[in-house]
# Entry
Amino acid sequence: MVATMTIGERQVALAISIFVALCGVVLAAASGSDPLLVHGIIIVLAGVAGVFIILRDYYAPEPGPERLSRYYDEPIKAGIIAALAWAIVGMFIGDWVAWLLAYPDLTFDAAWSTFGRLRPIHTTGVIFGFGGNALIATSFHVMQRTSRARLPDQLTPWFVLAGYNLFCILAVTGYPMGITQSKEYAEPEWYADIWLVIVWVVYFVLYLRTLARRKEPHIYVANWYYLAFILVVAMLHIVNNLALPVSLGSAKSYSFFSGVQDAMVQWWYGHNAVAFFLTAGFLGMLYYYLPKRAGRPIYSYRMSIIGFWGITFFYVWVGSHHLHYTALPLWVQTLGMTFSVMLLVPSWIAAANALLTLNGAWHKVRDDATLRFMMVAAVLYGLSTFEGSFLAIRPVNSLSHYTDWTVAHVHAGTLGWNSMIIFGAIYYLVPQLWGRQRMYSAALVETHFWLAVAGLVVYVFAMWNSGITQGLMWRTYNESGTLAYSFVDSLVAMHPYYIARAIGGLMFLVATVIGVYNVWMTIRSVPAAEGRPVADQPASLPAGEAAAPARG
Amino acid sequence: MGVIERDPHTGHGTTGHEWNGIKELNTRVPWPVWTFLILTFGFSVVWWILMPAWPLGTTYSKGLLGVDVRQVVSASLKSAAEERAAWTSQIDQKDYAAIQADDALMKDVRATGHALFGDNCAACHGLAARGGPGFPNLTDHDWLWGGTPEAISETIRVGVNSEDPDSRVSQMPPWGSNGALDRPSLLAVVSYVHSLSHPGAGADAAQLAAGKEVFAKNCAACHGPEAKGNPEVGAPDLTDDTWLYGGDLQSIYTTVYGGREGHMPTWQARLSDTERKILTLYVLDIGKSAP
# Structure
C-alpha cells in the first residue's frame, strides 16, 4: 500500500500516524486506572503500527504517472479482506450469544462474558465491521467506475479505511470491559465517537472530490445512495453522540439528552442507522453489482428517482415507531407510524426495480450463484421492508414489540438482504480485483448460497414463531381477568426456538467461513487472468477522452 | 449525451446514459406503484385528521377522535379492576378457611396466583416452588416461620432480614470463622447434628457424646434441646430430612463454620393486600397437591 503512495503522501501518512500515537499517549497518561488506559494503549499501538508500515516501504520507488490511467483498487482489496475478517468475528459472537440465550449458564461466571457485553460485539462486528467495510470498499469501487475517475489521491482512502477499523476495534474491545454509552448501535464512548467524526468527514469529502472529477455527465443512482448514506450517517452520529465526558481521563460520558428526548434522539439515530447504513448504502451496492452481473439495463430510471427520494425523505421521520406505547407523546408516535406506512411503496419500488431488471436474465439467476445472491438480497429487502412498515402500525406493534418478532425482522434484513448483497458483490469483485480468471470453486459458492439461505430460513422462522408466541402469551388473560402466564412461562416456551435459532445462525456462520475460504483460495491459487478486463479501466475510454490524464 | 437505444427484451427505450456499461431504461412507472402510493398517502392523511399528529408550536393537532392515551389506559385499568372485583372483593372479605372451602374462588386464586408467583417469587423459589440450595422449598410442608395462613402471609409482608421495620430476623452465627468453637468441638457438633437425621451413619460414639454437649451449650438456645427448631426465630428443625443449605457432613460443616443469614425481600410496598393474600392461598394450595 505504501509503495503506491507518492513521497509527499508518505510523509503526511507518517505525520498522521505519529499524531495518532501521541493522542493515545495523552489518553493513556490521563486515564489513571480507568479502562481508558487499555484504549490509550491500543491507539498508541495503532499509531506505531502505522509508522512501521510506512517506514518499511518509505524508500520504495515512487509510482509513476502511468498510475493515473488506472483506477486505484488497492484499498478496495484491503476493505474486502477487513469486511470478511469482521464477518467471521461478528457472526461467531452472534452465534455465541444465541447459545447463551438458550443456555444462560454459559457465562463462566465472568463479567465480560455476560449477554449485555457480548451482544454489542456482535452488532458492532457485523453492522459496522462487516457491513461498514463492505460499504466503504464497494463505494470506492463503484464511485471510480461510474464516475470514470480515479480516486483523487493515494492517502485519503487508506486513512478512511484504517481510521474506520480503528474505531471498530476501539468499540469491540471496550464492551467486554464495560465501556458503553448504553445507546443501541451507538455504544462506543466519546473519544471513539470523535475519531469517527473525523474519519467520516474525510470519507464524505473524498466521495465529493471523486464525484467532482467525474468524466460522466450524469451521476449514477448508486452514487446518490452512497452519498446519502455517508451524509446522513455523519449527521446521525454527531447528534446522537453529543455528550460530555466525566473528564479527559475517563471513558465515561453523559449524554446531552435525557428522558424521553434521549429515547427519541436515540431511535431517530437507531432507525436511520438501519435506513442509511443498512439500506441506502446497500442499495448503492445493489444498483451497481446487480445490473453489472446480470448484464441488463436498470428497468426504470423513473422508478429509481421515486424510490430514492421517497426513501431518503420518509425514512428520517420513522424512528419514533420504536417507541410506540411509551412516554413519547401520541402525536410523535402517529407521525412515526404514518411515515412508515408511506415509506412502504418507495422501498418496494427499489426492490421491484432490481427484480424487474433481471427480466431477460433469469436464466443467469438459475445458473450463476453470484447473481442469485443478489436476487435473494432484493427479494429479502422487499420482504423485510414490508414487514417493517407492518410492524410500525401501532396495534401490530403492541403484539410484536419487545418480542423475538423484532429479532426475526432484523435478521431477515441483515442476513437476507445485507449479507447476501455483500457476498454477491464480493464474488463479483474478488476475481476482478486480484486479476484472477474465476473464483477458486464455483461449487463452494453454490454451497455458501444454499447453506446461507437454509440458515436464514431456520433463523427467521424460529424467531417468528417464538416472537408471536411470546407476544400472545404476554397478553393472554384468563377467566379471572388476570394475565395467564408469568414472564418465566414465556421463557420456558422460548427455549426450543432459541436452540433452533442458534442452529440457524451456526449454519449461516459456517456458510460464511466457506465463503472466506473460497476467497482466500482464489487469491492464493487461481491462475491470473490475461490482463485485467480492459473495459473496466479508464484507459479504455474512447479515443480523445482517454488521452486526458486524470487530475491529481 | 449518449444515443437512446431500444432494449430488445422489454422493448423500452434507454435514457441514453451509460456508466461503465450500465444503462437505464426510461420505462414508465407501473400503475400499481401510483395506486399504492395514493392508498398509503390517503391512509396517512385520514389518520392525521383523526388522531393527534402534527406539532403546532407549543401544542399539537388533537385529531377529530380526541384520543388521549393516558385516558385510554386509565379507563381500561379501571374497567379491568371492576371486572375482577367480582371475585377479588370476596378474597378481601372472607377469611382463609372460607376461601379454601370455596371451589370457584380457589379456581381464581390458582389462575391468578400462578402468574403472581411466577413474576415475583419464582426467581428464588423456582417456578414449581421447590426451592434450591439457600431457598426454601414451599411444597414440603416444612415451614421455618410457621405454616399457618397468617404466618405465611406475615412472612410475605415483611420478608426475612429485609429493610422492613417489622422484618423477621434470623441469624445463624458463625462458630468457626470467628473462633467461637475450636476445631474438635466443631467436628463433634457437626457429627452430632448429622446423626440426628442420619441415625446409624456409624459415627464414633464418644464424638457424638462430645457433640451433644457442645450442642446443648451453644445451639439449643435457638434450635431447642431436642433440635426440633423454633419458628419464632426461624431456626430449622435439625432432625428431619429438610435442609436449606444441604444435610451432608460437608454442608453442615460449612454452615456451622461460617454461619448463615438468608434474605427474603419485603413485599408490602410492591404487592397489594389482595395480591399477598392470593399468594398465601396459592402457596398453601400447591403444597396441598404436592406429595
